[in-house]
Specification:
This protein has helices spanning 11-29, 34-41, 45-57, 125-140, 179-186, 196-207, 260-263, 267-272, 277-283, 294-306, 312-335, 345-348, 351-365, 381-398; strands at 32-33, 61-66, 76-80, 86-92, 96-103, 108-115, 147-154, 157-158, 165-166, 191-195, 216-221, 225-231, 234-235, 339-343, 371-374. It is 41% helix and 19% strand. It starts with 10 loop residues before the first helix and ends in a 5-residue tail after the last helix. The protein has 14 helices and 15 strands. α4 packs parallel to α5 (179-186). β11 and β12 form a beta hairpin. The protein is α/β, with parallel strands linked by helices.
Length: 403
């Protein structure tokens, strides 16, 4: 085969493509034999043997035992070496920063939560970020130099043009124009920033209810109400990173909110956000309101209501479903998605009962009729999405054997 090394069609590039295909299969299936890898990739036994030897020498694959107990003679099994690389993620809210580190297979190996209460941060944001990351690294027995990439999830979004955080005035300390430069100077690994709800959508796309779907909307309702838009398989972020900030959406049923960025709220947030649910419950005669944070109280209200077939609680749940469908009708009328994923505790707490009520209301309010599903990623979905994002970039870099 002719051609310059490194150009498409050359042995070097074809080898690298086969290497990546084998590594992805090992990630998907777990330990595999040389014969099984050959069958799944379509490679001959000698070529598969050369591939595995190459990946083992590169520190990407290791022998993990044999296939004893299966029909036929035992065979050597191979798996991706978990220590080949590590990636980290942070989930930032006004009250805390949650950090985690994962090995290249996606297994979480260290976690840490740093409380950050108060309207004014007691320490610079850079210190909070590094302390949270270091806590997760210590739990994993690793250092900062072991991390190939860090993804930080925050409310709002960093404007690509200015580098400043927008749509999240409630996150104290994160609005300095020098913040991204300060973080880059403090951390030895590449750092990426992503909207928290976008990261939940990424987690659902890779691991959960949106697997196999290229056009979907994820609606999130927890501390705040927001959405993520996946179009043609890719996140749509918008010109300033504000795509999906649907809490600001003007909707029927609530007065127009003006100066929305100053208020950090808007019509849909006031109508259907977590903070609106206690007042709605009282209005409809629901007694013994739950305690806890705004998000915890709202989730408890919704969960209790979903357990009742009749009475004020069921009336409350139906009214909440109508409010949710009101904003969703505007979204699906513009985007016509195949699927809508409901996530965040103020939605998932209602389970199938709430989902069915919202689906029925949406079918009356919107001409297009996407299928509604409850999100499958329940445990720290923002953090899981941050790890998945960091791992995707890390694998693209580490698994590229043509370099």
């Amino acid at each position: 085969m002719s051609g310059t090394a490194g150009t498409p069609g050359t042995p070097r590039v074809l080898r690298a493509m086969n290497d990546r295909a084998a590594l992805d299969l090992l990630l998907e299936h777990g330990p595999l034999s040389r014969t099984r890898i050959g069958k799944l990739t379509g490679l001959s036994k000698p070529t598969a043997s050369q591939l595995l030897a190459r990946l083992e020498a590169a520190g990407l694959v290791r022998a993990t035992g044999t296939s004893e107990g299966r029909p036929g003679p035992s065979a050597q099994l191979y798996a991706v070496d978990p220590a080949a690389a590590h990636a980290a993620g942070l989930d930032v809210t006004p009250a805390r920063i949650r950090a985690a580190v994962a090995d290249i297979t996606g297994r979480t190996v260290g976690e840490y939560e740093l409380p950050t209460p108060g309207r004014r941060p007691s320490q610079p944001v850079v210190r909070h970020v590094t302390d949270a990351l270091d806590g997760a690294l210590e739990a994993a027995g690793l250092t900062r130099d072991d991390v190939h990439r860090l993804v930080i999830g925050t409310p709002g979004a960093f404007d690509p043009g200015t580098g400043r955080l927008r749509y999240a005035s409630h996150l104290p300390g994160w609005h300095s124009p020098a913040l991204l430069d300060e973080l880059a100077a403090a951390l030895p690994m590449p750092v990426e920033y992503e909207n928290d709800v976008n990261l939940v959508a990424l987690a659902e796309q890779r691991l959960g209810a949106a697997r196999g779907h290229r056009d979907f909307v994820l609606l999130w309702n927890q501390e705040g109400l927001g959405a993520a838009l996946v179009l043609g398989g890719r996140l749509h972020r918008g010109w300033t990173g504000g795509a999906g900030e649907v809490g600001f959406l003007p909707v029927p049923g609530t007065p127009l909110v003006r100066q929305v960025t100053r208020a950090n709220s808007g019509g849909y947030q006031e109508l259907a956000g977590s903070q609106a649910l206690p007042a709605l419950a009282r209005e409809l005669g629901v007694e013994d309101p739950p305690t806890g944070s705004r998000a915890e109280a709202a989730a408890e209200l919704v969960a209790r209501a979903a357990d009742h077939a009749t009475g004020p609680r069921r009336t409350f749940l139906a009214a909440y479903a109508t409010r949710l469908a009101t904003g969703l009708a505007a979204l699906v009328s513009v985007l016509d998605p195949e699927l809508v994923v409901l996530s965040g505790t103020s939605l998932t707490a209602g389970g199938e009962v709430l989902r069915a009520l919202v689906q029925a209301e949406l079918e009356e309010l919107a001409a297009s009729r996407p299928r509604l599903v409850i999100g499958d990623v329940h445990e720290h979905p923002v953090l899981r999405g941050a790890l998945e994002s960091a791992l995707a970039s890390t694998r693209d870099e580490v698994f590229d054997t043509s370099r």
